[in-house]
Specification:
This protein is of the alpha/beta class. Helix content is 32%, strand content 22%. The chain starts with a strand and ends in a 17-residue tail after the last helix.
């Protein structure tokens, strides 16, 4: 049954293209999250009949926030929600699911490279139908809606078991829990020559990928080790943790120091890499050589034509 709950506006809920970021305890105080979610629904013309993707980087409060969003989507008349198993979805994977399922947008719960935990940071951003971040025109509408909000809608129902892949329902809304990796890996196989990469690893090529206890651990393990044949242990810090192992999921020489020390040692593998909290930014490191982000982007651009999907060249590249 739909519940309409009276609320009052909260100052300062201005999202950027990277979403709204505050301390976790701020988001945990009702109705901070609820107001922002309802304002987003209001800004996009409501949720009736629409489908949304929901997931995040696994930081503290991720799962609780997802349950709130699912119930509010049902309360706003959405027809479907697609959510990553255990609440996990990298930002690129969420973007792909939006486009793949022709969803009306997605809620991504992340504060990117900011530390996580009850006394650290939390964030949420809305991605539009094209899978990309909400444009400034939309974030402006969301902000305006946060200033005039007087009520939010939800449903009274049990939480969804996010650990089980499958379909359940809240009122008239379908909730589909999906494997976070499967569709994203299938996309990668259309973009890159997995056979050539598999042969590279089979020939003795070595790598270390530091997932920094953030969202990319399951993706890297499934793709690099299980599919492409990199030796077990290639992925380190691969289990997402709510506090990122008390680390700072920012892929740079300071916060990925263990990786840097390895790459500058006599035991260095051929290549090293690390990614940030939600998996949309990386650091690439050579044996004994730090590669600046701008240089790694230039290398990718120069060699993109070697990947099947980009054989005809690139229209452009966007770096964070």
């Amino acid at each position: 049954m739909t519940k309409t709950i009276q609320t009052t506006s909260i100052e300062g809920q201005l999202p950027g293209t990277s979403g709204l970021r505050k301390k976790t305890r701020v988001f945990m105080e009702t109705p901070y999250l609820e107001n922002f979610i309802q304002a987003t629904f209001d800004a996009i013309g409501g949720g009736v009949g629409k489908t949304f993707v929901v997931g995040g980087d696994g930081r503290y409060f991720n799962k609780d926030a997802i349950q709130t969003i699912i119930k509010m989507a049902a309360g706003n008349g959405a027809s479907g929600v697609i959510v990553g198993q255990n609440g996990i979805l990298s930002t690129p994977a969420a973007s792909h699911l939006i486009r793949l399922n022709k969803a009306d947008g997605g809620f991504i719960l992340s504060a990117s490279h900011n530390p996580g935990g009850i006394d650290e940071d939390f964030g949420i951003k809305f991605n539009a139908q094209n899978g990309g971040p909400a444009p400034e025109s939309l974030t402006a509408k969301i902000f305006e809606a946060t200033k005039t909000i007087v009520q939010y809608k939800t449903v009274a129902s049990d939480d969804v078991d996010l650990s089980k892949i499958g379909i359940t329902r809240h009122a008239d809304m379908q909730i589909q829990v999906v494997d976070a990796v499967t569709d994203y890996q299938a996309l990668m196989e259309t973009l890159f020559d997995f056979g050539a990469i598999r042969a590279l690893f089979a020939g003795g090529f070595t790598m270390c990928f530091d997932a920094m206890h953030a969202v990319t651990g399951p993706y890297a393990t499934a793709i690099l080790e299980d599919t492409l044949g990199a030796v077990k242990g290639t992925v380190v810090n691969g289990i997402p943790l709510e506090d990122f192992g008390k680390g700072h999921p920012d892929p740079n020489p300071i916060w990925a120091k263990d990786l840097m020390d390895l790459m500058m040692s006599d035991a260095s593998p051929d290549i090293g890499a690390a990614s940030d909290g939600d998996g949309d930014r990386n650091m690439i490191v050579g044996r004994g050589a730090y590669v600046t982000p701008s240089d790694s982007l230039a290398i990718l651009a120069a060699n993109a034509h070697l990947a099947p999907a980009y054989a005809g060249g690139l229209a452009g590249m966007l770096g964070e």
